[in-house]
User: Fold these one by one.
Assistant:
Number 1:
Amino acid sequence: MSKRRLEAFSDGVIAILITIMVLELRTPHGTSWDALREDVPVLLAYVLSFANLGIYWNNHHHMLAAVSRVSGAALWANLHLLFWLSLIPFATAWMSENHLPPVPVAAYGMVLLAAAIAYYLLQGRLLSIAGKHSLLASAIGTDAKGKASPIMYCVGIGLSFVSQWLGLAVYIAVALMWLIPDPRVERTLAAQRDDGGKSST
Amino acid sequence: MSKRRLEAFSDGVIAILITIMVLELRTPHGTSWDALREDVPVLLAYVLSFANLGIYWNNHHHMLAAVSRVSGAALWANLHLLFWLSLIPFATAWMSENHLPPVPVAAYGMVLLAAAIAYYLLQGRLLSIAGKHSLLASAIGTDAKGKASPIMYCVGIGLSFVSQWLGLAVYIAVALMWLIPDPRVERTLAAQRDDGGKSST
Amino acid sequence: MSKRRLEAFSDGVIAILITIMVLELRTPHGTSWDALREDVPVLLAYVLSFANLGIYWNNHHHMLAAVSRVSGAALWANLHLLFWLSLIPFATAWMSENHLPPVPVAAYGMVLLAAAIAYYLLQGRLLSIAGKHSLLASAIGTDAKGKASPIMYCVGIGLSFVSQWLGLAVYIAVALMWLIPDPRVERTLAAQRDDGGKSST
Amino acid sequence: MSKRRLEAFSDGVIAILITIMVLELRTPHGTSWDALREDVPVLLAYVLSFANLGIYWNNHHHMLAAVSRVSGAALWANLHLLFWLSLIPFATAWMSENHLPPVPVAAYGMVLLAAAIAYYLLQGRLLSIAGKHSLLASAIGTDAKGKASPIMYCVGIGLSFVSQWLGLAVYIAVALMWLIPDPRVERTLAAQRDDGGKSST
C-alpha cells in the first residue's frame, strides 16, 4: 500500500492543527502594548504547542521517509496519533484562557503523553512491516528520546500539581530535547542516498 | 483523467473536517476536573465523528488505490460525498451542545445515512469505469458492510426516538464494524503488488 | 515552471473554503425540528456556495490537466482567482444571517462575477502559454458557458434589487448550467490519452 | 532528504492562513451598503495580508523549485518561517478590529519584519546546501529586494508612531515591490529547462 496519501493526509491534519490555534489567539482588548501584554501567557502556550506539533510533523516526516510501504493497521495507528494531536489546540486553549492553572496544565501534559504513546505504537507498526534490519530500525536505534519522553511527561504531570511552572518547565525540556537535531537519522538517510536509493522519494 | 487531484482534494477536505470539530470543543468553564466532566458528552461525540471521518478517509484511500483513472461523473459523485461529510461537524455540534437529545441524534444518523448512500454511489461510478472483472470489483466483493450500513443507520434513526442511547449504540456499532480491518482488500492489493502492479502508486 | 504546487495550493485553499462555511452553520437554538427549520435559508445558501466552489475546483482541475507548464504571471492570476473565491464564505454569511435580503444577495452575485472574471483571466494566461493549437485551446473551444456566466451574473445582480428570489434564481441557473457535465473536455482529454499522452498525469 | 513533504506542508499551512482570515471578516451589522462600508478597513487589511501571504507562497515556490534537496536544519528554518507567517492573521485582526490604530499597525509591521528575517534565514540554509554556483545562487543574485524589505519594514514601524497611514503606506510599498514580477528567476529557470533539467519537477 502506498504511503503517499498517508503522508498527504497527515500533512493536512497537522498543518490545520498548527494553524487553527491562531484562531484562539483573541484580539487584545485595547490598542496599547499593555493590552498585548495580557496575551503573553496565551502566546507562550501557542509557541509551545506550535513547537510540539512541528516536532511531530518533523519526526513523522523522517520516519515515513525511512519506510517504503504501509499497512492497514499503520493507517489506523496513524489516525490514532492524529486524534491525540487534534486535542492539543483544545488543551492549549483550556490552559491559556485561564492563565495556566494547575489542572489544565496537567491535562495538557496528558494529551502530550497520549500522543507520545500513539507515536510509539505507530513506530512499532511500521517497524513490524519494515523488519529488524531495515533502514527504519537502524535510523531509530535505541530510541532513547522516544523512551524518555513519556517518562518525562509523567513527571511533568505530577509536578504540575506542585507548581504549574515546574510542569511546564518539564514539557519545555522535552520539546527542547527534540528540537536539537538528531544527526543519526540524517546520516543514515544520507548513507542510503549515496548507495543509490532513489526509491525513497 | 488522473486521480491524483481527486485524492488530494478529498484528503484536504476530510483533513479539515476532522480537525475543525475541535473548534467546537469549547473551553471548559473553570479550571477543575469537574469543569472538564461537563464536556464529556461533547468529547464522546467528537470521538465518534472523528472515527467516522477516519473510516471514510480510510475506505476512500483503499477504493481509490484500486482504480487507475476517474471520470467527470466520479468527480461529482466525490463532491456529493464530501458535501454530506461536511455536515458531520454541524450535526455533531447540534447533538453535543444539547447533551445528546433525540431529534439531533436522529439528524446525526440521517447525515451518516446520506454519506453512506453517497459513498455507495461513488463506488458505483468507479466500478462502471473499472469494469466487473477489475481489481476494484474483486476488492469490494459482496460488499456486505456497505449494504448493511444504510439499513443499520435507518434502524438507529428510528430507535433514537425511543431512546437516544439506543440510536447512538447503533451508530457506534456501525463504526466498530468498519474499524475491524477487512483482510480482503489488503490481500487483493498485496496479490496485485506481487504480480508487479506498480502503476497503482 | 511545474504546475504541481499551483494545483496543490489551489486544492488546499478551495478545500478550506468549501469546509469553513460549515463553521458559519450555527447550531440551531433548540432540539426540535422546528429549530432546524430556521436554519433552512442558511443551509440553502451553504448548498449553493458548496456547489459553486465545487464547480470552480472541477473546472480548475480540467483546465490545469490540459496544460503542461505554468508561468509566474499564471501564479498571480491564480492567486487573484483564489482571492475572490475566498470572499464567497463571507458573502454567504452576510446573505444567510439576514435571511436573504436584497443588498447582500446582490453583493454575493458581485463576488461570483469577480470570480468568473478572474477565472477568465487565468484561462487567458494559460492559453497564451499553451498556444492557439494546444489541447487547452481545443478543450475550451468557443467557451460559451464562460462567456455567458458574467452576463448572467450581471442580470442576477440587477434582478436582486427587484426581488432577491429572482437574483438567486439566476445564480442557481448559472450553477446548474455548469453542473451539467461538458462532454467536450473529457472527449478531448480521452482522445489525447489514446494518442499516448502520458505526460498530463 | 526529499523536498516534497516540505512543500506539501508549507502549501497546507499557507493555504490555511490565507483562508482563515476570512473567518475574521465579521458579517456586517445590517443589510445595507452602509453596513458594508464599516467593514472597509477590515477588508483592506485582509487584502494586504492576502497579498503578503500570496507573495510568500510565490517566493517559497520559486525558491524550492531551484533546489533539489533539503536538510533537517532547513525543515526547522521552514517551520520558523511558518510560525511568523501564522501570526499574520492575529496581527491583521488586532489592527483591523480597532480601525487601524498606531500600536497594532506597528505590531503588524514587526510580524512582517520577523517573517522577512525568517525567510532570509531559510534562504541561507538552502544556499549552504546548494552551493555558491548553484541554480538557486544565480536565481537569487544580489537579492536586492530581500535586503531592502527588512529595512523598509523598520522604517514603516517607526513611521506608524508618527501616523499609522505612513506606516501602512510603507508596508503596501514593500508588497507592491514584490508583486512586480522578477524576470531573473524565471529566466534562469527557463534557461535551465532548455538545458534539459527535468529533475526540478
Number 2:
Amino acid sequence: MSGLDLGSIIDWTGLFGIAVFAVSGSLEAARKEMDILGFLLIGCVTGLGGGTLRDLLLGATPVYWIERPEMVMICLVASVATYFLAPLLTSRYRALVWMDAIGLSTFCITGTAIAMAHGASPLIAVCMGVMSATFGGIIRDVLCAESLILSSRELYVTTAVAGATAYLLLQLVNVGEMIATLGAFSIAFGLRTAAILFGLKLPQYRRPAG
Amino acid sequence: MSGLDLGSIIDWTGLFGIAVFAVSGSLEAARKEMDILGFLLIGCVTGLGGGTLRDLLLGATPVYWIERPEMVMICLVASVATYFLAPLLTSRYRALVWMDAIGLSTFCITGTAIAMAHGASPLIAVCMGVMSATFGGIIRDVLCAESLILSSRELYVTTAVAGATAYLLLQLVNVGEMIATLGAFSIAFGLRTAAILFGLKLPQYRRPAG
Amino acid sequence: MSGLDLGSIIDWTGLFGIAVFAVSGSLEAARKEMDILGFLLIGCVTGLGGGTLRDLLLGATPVYWIERPEMVMICLVASVATYFLAPLLTSRYRALVWMDAIGLSTFCITGTAIAMAHGASPLIAVCMGVMSATFGGIIRDVLCAESLILSSRELYVTTAVAGATAYLLLQLVNVGEMIATLGAFSIAFGLRTAAILFGLKLPQYRRPAG
C-alpha cells in the first residue's frame, strides 16, 4: 500500500468484493442444498480464495486474512445472511450471476492494484488481477461440482482482462485512484452486463472434422 | 512449537493423522483400481495436503515435509501396505470412512495447535484447524473424481469445527496439552461416529420453488 | 542455480517444457471449444502450474514467473499460435498426448534439479520433480473437466518418477549436467513413448468381490 488514499479505497473496494463473492458462494451452496456449515465453507473459500492465491504467488505471507480476522468474519456473516435470506429471492441463479459479476469487476481492480504495489511489471499485474478475479469463482465451481465458468459463461475472463488493463492504463495516465477505480469498474461491469443481457461471446474455437 | 511436551504430543498426533489419511487416500485409489504409483500419489497428497495448505497460508515455508522426509516416507509405506492389505478387508468403503474420521479428528487439533503456536487469533486458529482437517479429503475426492465429501457426508465440516473449537477452549482454561488433545479428539471423533452410525445431519437448505 | 552451465541448460530446458505444456493446455481448450481467452488462461495455467507449485512449497516466492514476465509471454504466444494452427492438425488429441509427453519428460528433470539446488534431500527432490511434471497436467484436466490423467493414462506418474530418479542418480555419479539431462530425458520419454505405442501399464489394483 503506497498511501492513505490508495490504501483506503482499495481496502473498501476489497471488503465489498469479498462480501459479494461470499454471497455468490453461499448461493451456490443453496443450489446444492448444503447445510449451514457448507454455506460458511463455500462462502469463505469463494470470498477469500482469489486474494489468497495472489498473496501466495507474490510471497506476501502470512496471507492477508490471517492478520485481519474481520475479513473472515465478513464472509461468515454474508454466508449466514444468505442462508436465511436466499429463500426470499425469486431466482437464486440470477442473483448468483449478478453477485459474481460485481465481485469479478471489483477483484480484477484490487488484484492489479496490490500487484502494482508489490512492484510487479504491467503484464504480471494484469495476470494477478485476472487470477484474483477468477480464482474464487473457479474454486467455488470445482468444490460444488458445477460446470466451470471458464467454458460456459459469457465474456468471463474477458471482463477480468478488460478491467485489469483499464485500471492499469488509467493509473499510468495518473487520473487519480478514485477515477481509475470507478472507470475500470464501469468498463468491467458494463462489459459483463452487456454480455449477460445480450449473450455476447467471443467466437468459440470450432473443431474442424477429424 | 512452544515446548517439549506440546511439541512431542502434537508431533505424534500429527504423524498418526498423516498415516491414517494416507491409508484413506490409498483406499480411494483402490476403489478406483489405480496402479501402485496412483496409490503412492493419492496417499501422499491426502496425508500431507491439509498441513501443506496450512503452512503455505501461514507463510511457514518451506512446508513441513520438505525438511522432514520421514513424513513423506510414512505416506509411502502406508500406501504400499494398503495396496497389499486392502484385498483382505471385507469392506474397503467402510474402512475408508473410519480412517477418514480418525484423520479428521486428529488434524483439526494439530492444525489449530500449530496456528496458535504461530500467534494466530482464535477465529483464524479454528479456520486453520478446519482447513487442515478437511483439505486432504477434499483434494483426494477432486483427484479421484469422487462426489465431494462437502455435499454428501454427515456432519463432516461440523466435526472439524467442533474439534478445533473444543481444543481451543480447553487450551484457554489451561487443562494441559494431553487433556486438551484427548478431550478434543473424543468430542470430534464421538460426534463423527454418532453421525455415521445414526445418520445425523444438520438440516439441509431446502430450495423453495422458483 | 549453482553454476552457469547448470543454470543455462536447466533454463532452456525449462522454457521448452513451459512452451510445450502451454500448447498441450491450448489443445485441450480447443477440444472444449473455448474462446481465445480460455486458450490463454488454460495455456498459462498448464505451462506455469507445475513450477509454481514447486516454488510455493519450497518457499521460493515470489514465484519464478513474477520476476520473469517472459515466461508468461511464452505461454501467451504458444496459446495464440495453437489457436490459429490447431485446425491444421489432423488429430488434436494425438498432438496433445505427445506434447504432454515431452513436457512431462522435461519438467521431471527441471523440478528435480531446482529442488536439489535448494538443498532438498533425494527423496524430496524426486517428489518435487514428480509434482512439477504432473501438476500442470492435473490442473489442466480439472479446469477442463477432463477425466484425470491419473486414472486413465499409461505409465504417467511412472514416467515422472523414472525421469526424476534417473536424473538424480546421473548427477550423483557426476556425468555432467548435459549428459544427466539428456540421459534422464531419454529414459522418461522412451518409457512414455513405449507406454503410449504399446499400451504398457502397471498392473491395476483389482477389487476383490465384497
Number 3:
Amino acid sequence: MNLLNIGNPVFEVYAITAAIMVLKVMLQGWMTVYRMLKSNAGLVNPEDLQLGLINKEPHPGQLELSDYVDRSRRMHRNDLENIPAFLAAGLLFVAVNPALWLAQVLMYGFVFARIAHFAAYATQQIHEIRATFYTLGSLIVIYMVGHVLWSVLS
Amino acid sequence: MNLLNIGNPVFEVYAITAAIMVLKVMLQGWMTVYRMLKSNAGLVNPEDLQLGLINKEPHPGQLELSDYVDRSRRMHRNDLENIPAFLAAGLLFVAVNPALWLAQVLMYGFVFARIAHFAAYATQQIHEIRATFYTLGSLIVIYMVGHVLWSVLS
Amino acid sequence: MNLLNIGNPVFEVYAITAAIMVLKVMLQGWMTVYRMLKSNAGLVNPEDLQLGLINKEPHPGQLELSDYVDRSRRMHRNDLENIPAFLAAGLLFVAVNPALWLAQVLMYGFVFARIAHFAAYATQQIHEIRATFYTLGSLIVIYMVGHVLWSVLS
C-alpha cells in the first residue's frame, strides 16, 4: 500500500494544506519586503544604506528597529517555529493511515489557526487572541506526532 | 519497492525519531510561554502590555530583554537551525535504503544529541559541553545528506 | 505508481537538490562558529564568557553585537525562511508528477539562486543583487506550490 501518493485522499488533504502553509511562509517574506519599502525603514544590513534603485534616500536611521517592519519578521519567526513542524508531522501522519475526517479536521484546522494567528498578529490584537490561535495550531501538531508515535510503537 | 512506508523498519525508525524531534520543537515554544508567564517578563510585542487574563500587571519593563526568557528563544532558534534539516535529511536517507543499524545509530544518535544539547543549554553549562552535542547532531545530518548524494550520484 | 522513490528521475533531482540545500543550512551554522572563533566576538550566551578551551581570553565585550558574526546568523535566518519551504514544496512537487525538465529547471534553479544569494550576502553586495537572487528562489518555491495546488484541485 502506497499512502504517500496522490490518489490517497488523506495525502491529497496533506498536499493541499502543506502547499498553503508553504505559500504562507513565502508570502510573509514578501510582507517584510513590502513594509521595508513602504516605510523606508527596518533595514538590517549596513550595505543596504547605499544609494540604489531600492533605496533612493539612504540615511543611518534606516538601520534602527522599526516595529512596523520587525512585526512582520516576528510573524515570520513564529511561522518558522510552527509550520516546518506541521509539514513533517503531517507527512508522518499520512503514513500511519488515519481516518480521512480526522486528517481533514486537523490539517484544515491548522491552516485556519495559522491564518487567524496571522490576522491577529498583523492587526495587533491583544495577547489572548493571538495566544488562542497559537495554542490551537500547536496542539494540532502535538496531537499528530503523538498519534504517529502511538501507531508506530503499539 | 516502497521504502517510505510503515512496514519498512528504517522508515519506522525515521517516523519515531522525526516525531520526537517535532515534539521537541513544539515544546520549546511552550517553554518560552512558561518562562514569560513565570517571570512576567520577556515580552516582544507592544500590544502585550495591555491588561488582560495573561498580563495582570503590565509595565513597560516587560518589553526589555530577559535572559531567562530569551534563552528559551535562543534554544528554539538553535532547534530551527538543526531539526528541520534533520527531518528532510532523514526522509531522503530512508529513500536510499540504508542498513537498519546505521539508521538506528544516526537517528537515535541525533535525538540523543539534541536532548543533551537542550539540557546543557537550559542549565547554562560551559560552551564546550553545548558545542560537543551541537557538533554531534550537526555531523549526523551532514553525514546523512552526504550518504544520500553518494547513493544517488554513484 | 510510486513517485517518491529512487528510480523516478524527478525524485532523484529532488533528492540531489534537497541534500545540497540541507548541507547549505548545516554549513551556515559552521560559518557562524568559524567567525565567532576567528574574531573572538559575537557570542550570545553569558556562560560563554567562562575561560575554557574555546574561549581563552574572555571579556564582556564578546557579548556585543558583531556585524561579522551576526551577518552569518542573518544569512542563516534567511536560509530558514526559504530552504525548509523548498524542501517541503519540492517533495509535494515530485508527488504531482511534473515533467523532468521542469523539475530540473526549478530545483537546480533554486540551488543556484540560494548559492548566489549566499555569495552576495557574504561579500556585502548592494541590496539589488541580493534581492534579485532572493526573488528568484522565492518565486520558484511559490510556483512549485501553486503547481501542486493546481494539480490536486483541478
